[in-house]
Amino acid sequence: MRAFVFDQYKKPLHEADVPEPTVGEHDVLIRVEAAGLNHLDERLRAGEFKAVLPYKTPVTLGHDVAGTVIRTGAGATRFTVGDRVYARPRDHRIGTFAERIAVDEADVALAPTSISVVEAASLPLVALTAWQALVEKGNVQPGQKVLIHAGAGGVGSIAIQLAKHLGAHVATTVSGKNADFVRELGADVVIDYRAHDFESELSGYDFVLDPLGGDNLTKSLKVLKRGGKAVGISGPPTPAFAKAAGLNLVLRLAITVLSRKTRALARKLGVTYEFLLMHASGDQLRQIAELVDAGVIRPVVGATFPFDQTVQAVASLGTSSIRGKAVITGADQAA
After folding, report:
1. How far apart are CA 152 and CA 176, in angstroms?
2. 163 alpha-carbon distance from chain centroid
3. Pairing mode, if any, of strands 2-6 and 59-60?
4. Residue 255 main-chain phi, psi, to 5 deg
5. How buried is 91 (Cβ within 10 angstroms: 0-12 exposed, 13-18 middle, 19+ buried)?
6. What tens digit of pLDDT does each residue of 117-163 get?
7. To 10 degrees, the CA torsion angle through 109, 113, 114, 119?
8. Taking the C-alpha atoms of 24, 25, 31 and 32 in order, what is their torsion angle to the nearest 10 degrees?
9. Quick check: 100 and 20 in contact, CB under 8 A?
10. Pairing of strands 100-104, 14-17
């Protein structure tokens, strides 16, 4: 079947003819009708996660899928042939930039019925990231003050809507041209990061979701009230993450050193910092689908690419300024 792969880290993505997926006992085989693009795809190809998330090459890229179940494993009981589903396949089983993919049924959910297959494909990774940050790690409660950076992006646009559903007062940072857009999503306070310094304008926040890292994370810790929490998805990773991920001693020591300044600042300020590398979860996707069909969350698709232009689509990551997500339509779908 057709797929888009890279043969070695830092080598170009290209189309290849790869073997049909092996369907395990608890797998479902999905015909890929749309696949979401994520910065993780390009960062993985570039080798940024090689130490903590090593892949054996060649690797078929793609972390989001929406499509139709066309076969089930002997022990798979949750889905039947013909079901319209969406998923974020677990690590080491990615590969949605292909005609078909086998996914563990535990990572799959029925797709929301109120949206298109392209919109469904835009959701899994970013919606799971928002859910795991705000619900699992943040335990965000009604009335709390939440800051979500990059509110017009893939994660941010979903996180704003989820935070409002949880009852939070939401601030976000965006470029000025996206101010009205994020207000429509539910943001209460909008800061143009090009014209204003959010650190000087915000204080007393309960929770921050930071997808940027670096100085932005340092400033974010300072807008939290004592007892508040920041969750970062760009890093730095923490010793707690390294231990939970089962990384070797050398990597754990390196991560301890890498995150030392951030953790020390958090302790000094009386706040906490956690690193999130999201995980696959069909159960959470089922809950997200219910919110989508209830009108609580709406996906934001800023661009689509035909399957043949997958290389160009991945190359556009980090260079375009679209709102929300970009999605690749399946090989047998109209562009």
Report:
1. 11
2. 16
3. antiparallel
4. -70, -35
5. middle
6. 999 999 999 999 999 999 999 999 999 999 999 999 999 999 999 99
7. 50
8. -60
9. yes
10. unpaired
Instruction: Give me 86's structure tokens.
Output: 């969406």
Question: What pLDDT score was predicted for residue 252?
Answer: 94
Q: State the pairing for strand pair 301-305/14-17.
A: unpaired
Distance CA 266, CA 129 (A): 22
Q: What is the mean pLDDT of residues 272-277?
A: 96
Quick check: 20 and 116 in contact, CB under 8 A?
A: no
pTM above 0.90, yes or no: yes
DSSP classification of residue 111: P
Q: Which amino acid is at 155?
A: V
Q: Which residues have CB under 8 Å from 137's CB, separation 6+?
A: 229, 231, 274, 276
215: Cβ contacts below 8 Å, ≥ 6 apart:
none
Report how far residue 144's alpha carbon sits from residue 154's, in angstroms, rounded to the nearest whole number: 23
Distance CA 230, CA 188 (A): 19
Residues paired with 169 in a beta bridge: 145
- Reading the block at residue 233, the tokens are 């998805």
Single-letter amino acid code for the residue at 49? F
Q: Which pairs count as long-range contacts for 254-259, CB under 8 Å and 24+ apart, including other chains? A: 254/51, 259/235
Select from 172, 161, 163, 168 the least CA-distant residue to 145: 168
CA angle 89, 213, 146 (to 5 degrees): 85
Q: Which residues of 208-231 are buried (b: 16+ CB within 10 A; e: fewer)?
A: bbbbbbeebbbbbbbbbeeebbbb
Cα separation of 158 and 51, whole Å? 29
d(CA 94, CA 96): 6
Give the contacts of 260 (CB within 8 A, at least 6 positions apart).
none
Nearest of 60, 145, 67 to residue 329 by alpha carbon: 67
What does the alpha-carbon distance between residue 39 and residue 42 come to, in Å, rounded to a whole number? 6
